[in-house]
TrEMBL record:
PROSITE patterns: CLU (PS51823). Belongs to the CLU family. This is Clustered mitochondria protein homolog. It holds the Pfam family CLU. Residues 1-31, 629-651, 1250-1274 are annotated as: Disordered. Residues 329-571 form the Clu domain. One of its GO terms (molecular function) is mRNA binding.
Length: 1274
């Protein structure tokens, strides 16, 4: 199969293809014709634009003509054109036609770029495009969090591209010295944590000024008589040379007219410089413009620094940025440009229709699924952006409520076809469930439900687009609107479920049929409840889940807040006892609301756990039966149903291998219950594990158990009892299995949280809700190996404290009016972090405070409290509140009255706390050094608060096929089939790009793995190129100091070193260390790895003393977190010994190597190769030490005329340093002989040639393209 991957969005990937084959034998993932379809061979066309040489462009048949337009607008010599058509033999091509449908278009066709007359719309698009080109290097959009821009700093550390820069030049024979000393604050043991280096300033970022002003003229719109001369609009421009000009945009292009600021004279000036493009006009009238304007494509910057991310990423720090005049930005802010309407006919977008139509796209084969997933993803990211913008407008008071007469908290809004509601308990809807606290929790629960139903993706069942936005202390839910729902009362529309929490309930056969399909994957049990007339009604979801048929005839479900069963540890029910495991930990506990439910991950883990138990029980009984058969006595097996948990413990001991259990159980299933014996075995096992079926393993939950107001019919009493037991078991499972397993994973370092976000992720992966954080910390506190969990405990405490602070901050902000916002935020941060004991708030100056306060105050907008109560907050009061919040929400005791006590007691860093609270609440602060510890003045002033951003939660649609390829690739790599793995992952990368576009977290993971494979297979430049993309992407999509970004920097440094770019490798490692210090401090197991890397590189460049500081720090940290007897510690000792050897301090070297030798000997035994290596090295060190001593004696004895044996002081070879680097980074090479490598290269070349030939005709089926010679693995 030929992979003529010629589409432009893949040009990046086309270079990275190791060889041009698609994986045809992917077995279940793909069948052959599918892969061919997406990889239709490309062809080349010639393009001729006015005033430029024709150039070749590779295109693929699926592309639309529009995509060629986009390429031309991104190309350097044509980037200033927007209004043109493409013509083939004088015929204009339709923008939305696929290339394969155009007659006569083939390899080598010539397409002409023809300038078209402007319309008002085209002229606006042109001005906007030119403004974007002028702004493309300016980072202010990234700081302001608009248009999906975000920051990236990698290029500062790699000096642009990672080509040959950073290689050490050979001077004669000497390597030139490179400066390796890091700034003081990066050295081990340094206590200062500066903030400014977080955003190093780039010289190239001061973009050359091309124009002073480009704005719409006050003479717009053209009067009628000028409209009839073709005037579309007028622009006002001030050039760098201070020349003020007025420009007419006409149908024929742009020209100078004779108007001035105060007189209107639309006649062309002389000369008028009429040009089709504004850039051509400006280049003629302004030499500075001509000199400074160049297309961003010329920039050395990597395209990944500029491409928009799918969802907005906000930065919590920013420098003071100059606010420049910008007509397009100003216009955007004040026109009703809701969701890029100027490109879409029909003004506003019908979000619901778009979201649902994309779901209905066909999905029978791979190309269809790709198209569908791409459409779903795109609409979701657009919807999330529009919803965020709308939610902010609502809270800022810029949207009129649909019920303006009601009080603020009850108002609802519609903007841009999106419905917005505030997270308050309106009309006592949630009174029984915890009032406002429940109303605040319900939207996120609902979002989790939407996510779960969306992932199951049942045809014919629709959910609403849902985004939850937290902004300025308010929680806003944004939802797409069901057609027709606003015209009718809710009571009439709901035909399934209940609108009053189960007092009245209705059902509907079509809904039951649709929901039945989701019940197995979501583990929801079909059940009956009683309605107000005591009739039994059948449901297949919780009662709150409502079914409404829209005017479009689609079946919608909404209010999915109880998709998953309740969490009994946080739901005390009278007369119900929890299992002992829960009671021992002090459960059940009172929670703020009654909506606490178990996470989907927990349900999955619990069912998996029960399945193993089921297998073991069945196997045990079969073994007993076998034994009984052998002894010919048939003992009845009725008494074989002990309580599941008990059984589990006994079975653990009684069954040798799970494999056998599975085998036995599979034989059971295979006999399909014809044999009464085996049927009985299954029945018993089913009963024991609480399966809802008696003939097979099937566990599902009834989400309505323990819902107040829901009643069950008498005939299901038995069932309800079983369900209650199941819920209790699940709650106990969380406490007795999941929390200990998390702690165990942290002990053996398979889970390595570095900050609050990664800690939360680690909890969530195991199905533990964050409300268990206090319980987790207490569990850690009681663990014998507590010292080895210090990093985890510290991150947990700081997460707990900042979350409590966030809860308090939320209500604190609700009472603050807009003009006092920065004063209020800085005051809160002072109370939270500053050592200054009496922080005083700065109230806004009197002259701004309105005298007319007493006027009628009913129609307030949500975000406009005007009280000044916030100003009376004091640090001691805030910390009291934090402690009581920790107690009441997390049931955890913090005995501290001030920030300094907390920092002292738990060994926290104030910068870390500042980062955590800012990220959680959306605060953006000025990047400068803050003096938190001054007792004389507060750390923050209101000038330091730059912005407050929304915190957005939304659904992330997945690229399923790509993900399967990725997983198969990973599996292949783990089995050692690197080449096949590499191909599958390249394929996954293509598919990811197809669905997500070029920027996405999952593409980042894909690139990282590819880079690692390239590296292992010896292709260092390729590894560098892929890893560079991974770093850029991680910075842009996750954030510049996200733990993942830190890891990516470390990988990139390794590949730089292997590529001989030593100074770059060091810069990258220093950057990683700085970020890690800021995010979690020095005391973290990952720091040992980082410091070993730095130490090794420094050793390689002969900076021995510096190298020792890092390696000894790594040794200390490894000893603390892995225990003094660990192999990691042995390796650390060895690395330190090597540096001492290079310094010729043999006594110290011997001392460390002996320590290492002892560990190897005790752990691995005398015969192990590691022990032997260490013992050899000890001998060598001893010889060197003796030789040195002899020489010294000789010198003492004979003075200057001593005959001195030349001693070997060797600088380590780069190869030996690289070998150690690979070992500590866990990279194992697969030795390839030279012959294998040559075969591989020849094969790749052969395929490339085939590709060149086979652009038009597919190679015949039997051409043996598969590599026969697999990579040999030792």
């Amino acid at each position: 199969m030929v992979n003529g991957d010629g589409a432009h969005e893949h040009t990046e990937e086309a270079e990275t293809k190791q060889d041009g084959t698609a994986e045809a034998d992917g077995g279940e993932e793909s069948n052959e014709q599918e892969v061919i379809v997406i990889q239709d061979t490309g062809f080349t066309v010639k393009i001729q634009a006015p005033g430029t040489e024709p150039f070749d462009l590779q295109v693929s048949p699926q592309e639309m003509v529009q995509e060629i337009h986009q390429v031309l607008m991104d190309r350097e010599d044509t980037c200033h054109r927007t209004c043109f058509s493409l013509q083939l033999d004088g015929n204009v091509l339709d923008n939305f036609a696929e290339l394969k449908s155009i007659e006569g278009l083939q390899e080598g066709s010539l397409l002409k770029v023809v300038e078209e007359p402007y319309t008002v719309r085209e002229a606006r698009i042109h001005v906007r495009h030119i403004r974007d080109l002028l702004k493309s290097l300016d980072p202010s959009d990234a700081y302001n969090g608009v248009d999906c821009n975000s920051l990236s700093f990698l290029s500062i550390f790699t000096d642009g591209d990672l080509g040959d820069s950073g290689k050490r030049k050979k001077k004669g024979n000497e390597l030139e010295q490179i400066d390796c000393t890091p700034p003081e604050h990066i050295l081990p043991g340094s206590k200062e944590r500066p903030l400014v280096p977080l955003q190093p300033q780039n010289k190239d970022w001061k973009p050359m000024q091309c124009l002073k002003v480009l704005t719409m003229s006050g003479w717009n719109p053209p009067p009628g008589n000028r409209k009839m001369h073709g005037d579309l609009m007028y622009l006002y421009i001030v050039t760098v040379e201070e020349r003020h000009v007025s420009v007419t945009a006409s149908t024929r292009g742009f020209y100078l007219n004779q108007s001035t600021t105060y007189t209107f004279n639309p006649k062309p000036a002389n000369p008028s410089f009429l040009s089709h493009s504004l850039v051509e006009l400006l280049s003629q009238i302004s030499p500075a413009f001509k000199k400074n304007f160049h297309c961003p494509a010329k920039e050395k910057r990597h395209p990944f620094e500029r491409i928009a991310t799918p969802f907005q990423v906000y930065s919590w720090t920013a420098p003071q940025v100059d606010h420049a005049m910008d007509c397009v930005r100003a216009e955007d802010a004040y026109t009703s440009r809701l969701g890029y309407e100027e490109h879409i006919p029909g003004q506003t977008r019908d979000w619901n229709e778009e979201l649902q139509t994309t779901r209905e796209l066909p999905r029978k084969n791979l190309p269809e699924r790709l198209l569908r997933e791409r459409a779903i993803f795109k609409v979701h990211s657009d919807f999330a952006a529009a919803a965020t913008r709308g939610a902010m407008a609502v809270i800022d008071g810029n949207v009129m409520a649909i019920n303006p007469g009601e009080e603020t908290r009850m108002q609802m809004f519609i903007w841009n076809n999106i419905f917005f509601s505030l997270g308050f308990d309106v009309r006592d809807h949630y009174r029984e469930l915890g009032g406002d606290a429940a109303a605040h929790a319900a939207p996120t629960n609902d979002l989790n439900g939407v996510r779960a139903y969306g992932a199951v993706d049942v045809e014919g069942l629709y959910t609403l687009g849902t985004v939850v936005v937290d902004y300025r202390g308010y929680r806003v839910t944004a939802q797409s609107i069901i057609p027709g729902i606003l015209e009718r009362e809710q009571e009439q529309s709901v035909i399934y479920g209940s609108i009053d929490f189960g007092k009245t309930v209705v059902s509907h056969s079509k809904y039951l049929e649709l929901l039945e399909k989701t019940s197995r994957p979501l583990k929801v049990q079909r059940h009956n409840v009683l309605n107000e007339k005591n009739d039994s009604v059948e449901l297949c979801s919780s009662v709150e889940c409502k079914g409404i048929i829209g005017n479009d005839g689609r079946h919608y479900i909404l209010d999915l807040l109880r998709t998953f069963p309740p969490d009994l540890n946080f739901l005390p029910v009278d007369g119900e006892e929890l299992p002992l495991e829960s009671q021992r930990q002090g459960f059940p506990r009172q929670h703020r609301h009654r909506l606490a439910c178990l996470r989907q991950e927990l349900i999955e883990a619990f069912v998996e756990h029960r399945y193993l138990l089921f297998m073991k029980m069945a196997a045990l009984q079969l073994m007993q039966q076998k034994a009984n058969k052998d002894t010919k006595t048939d003992t009845p097996t009725d008494n074989c149903t002990p309580a599941a948990s008990q059984a589990g413990k006994e079975l653990e001991e009684s069954i040798p291998g799970l494999a056998q259990a599975k085998e036995l159980a599979e034989t059971l299933v295979a006999e399909d219950g014809s044999d009464p014996k085996s049927r009985e075995v299954v029945l018993n096992a089913c009963k024991a594990v609480g399966s809802i079926s008696n003939t097979s393993f099937d566990i599902r939950f009834n989400p309505d158990i323990f819902s107040p107001g829901v009643r069950f019919p008498d005939d299901s009493a038995d069932d309800v009892q079983k369900q209650k037991q199941l819920l209790k078991d699940a709650a106990a499972f969380l406490v007795s299995c999941q929390i200990p397993s998390l702690v165990k994973d942290c002990l053996d370092h398979s889970a390595l949280p570095m900050d609050g976000a990664t800690l939360t992720e680690a909890l969530h992966q195991r199905g533990i809700n964050v409300r268990y954080l206090g319980t987790v910390l207490e569990f850690v506190d009681k663990t014998p190996a507590k010292a080895q969990l210090e990093h985890f405990y510290r991150i947990g405490i700081s997460e707990l404290i900042t979350r409590c602070a966030k809860h308090i901050f939320k209500t604190y902000l609700q009472g603050v009016e807009l003009s006092a916002l920065s004063a209020a935020v800085s005051h809160f941060l002072n109370c939270f972090l500053s050592s200054f004991p009496d922080a005083v708030a700065h109230l806004p100056p009197d002259e701004l405070v309105s005298r007319r306060k007493s006027r009628k105050r009913r129609n307030r907008v949500p975000g406009s409290g005007d009280n000044t109560a916030w100003a009376s907050l004091t640090p001691s009061e805030l910390w009291k509140n934090i402690a009581s919040e920790a107690q009441s929400y997390y049931h955890f005791t913090i005995q501290c009255e001030s920030v300094d006590q907390v920092v002292e007691k738990y060994n926290l860093q104030k910068t870390t706390l500042l980062r955590e609270i800012s990220v959680k609440t959306g605060i953006q602060i000025l990047i400068k050094e803050y003096n938190f510890d001054s007792r004389h003045k507060p750390a923050f002033t209101e000038e330091d608060i730059l912005n407050i951003f929304p915190v957005v939660k939304h659904v992330n649609p997945k690229a399923s096929d790509a993900f399967h390829f990725f997983q198969s690739g990973q599996a292949k790599v783990q089995q050692g089939f690197l080449k096949e793995g590499c191909e599958l992952i390249n394929e996954a990368l293509n598919l990811f790009n197809n669905v997500y576009g070029p920027m996405h977290v999952e593409i980042c993971a894909c690139l990282r793995l590819l880079a690692r494979l390239n590296y292992i297979m010896g292709d260092h430049p390729e590894a560098l190129s892929n890893q560079q993309k991974a770093v850029l992407m991680s910075e842009r999509v996750l954030g510049i100091e996200h733990p993942n970004t830190i890891q990516e920097y470390m990988h990139l440094a390794l590949y730089c070193f292997a590529n001989g770019q030593l100074s770059t490798a060091l810069k990258l490692l220093y950057r990683a260390r700085y970020l890690m210090l800021l995010v979690c401090g020095e005391d973290h197991p990952e720091m040992a790895l980082l410091d070993s890397n730095i130490g090794l590189v420094l050793h390689g460049v002969m900076e021995y003393d510096l190298s020792l500081r890092f390696l000894e720090n790594a040794l200390t940290i490894n000893t603390k977190y892995h225990g003094p007897r660990s192999l990691k510690v042995a390796l650390s000792h060895h690395l330190v010994a090597r540096v001492y050897e290079s310094k010729a301090e043999f006594r110290s070297a011997l001392q460390h190597e002996k320590e290492g030798y002892t560990i190897y000997k005790n752990q691995m035994g005398e015969a192990h190769e590691k022990t032997k290596e260490s013992s050899e090295y000890l001998k060598y060190l001893t010889q060197q030490a003796v030789a040195l001593q002899r020489t010294m004696n000789e010198i003492y004895k004979n003075g200057s005329n001593a005959s001195i044996m030349p001693l070997k002081f060797t600088a380590p070879s780069m190869a030996s340093v690289l070998e150690q680097l690979n070992i500590i980074n866990g990279i194992i090479f697969i030795p390839l002989s030279q012959k294998d490598l040559e075969n591989l290269k020849a094969e790749v070349q052969r395929r490339q040639q085939l590709q060149e030939l086979g652009k038009n005709e597919e190679p015949t089926e039997d051409s043996p393209l598969e590599l026969e010679d697999k990579i040999p693995i030792d």
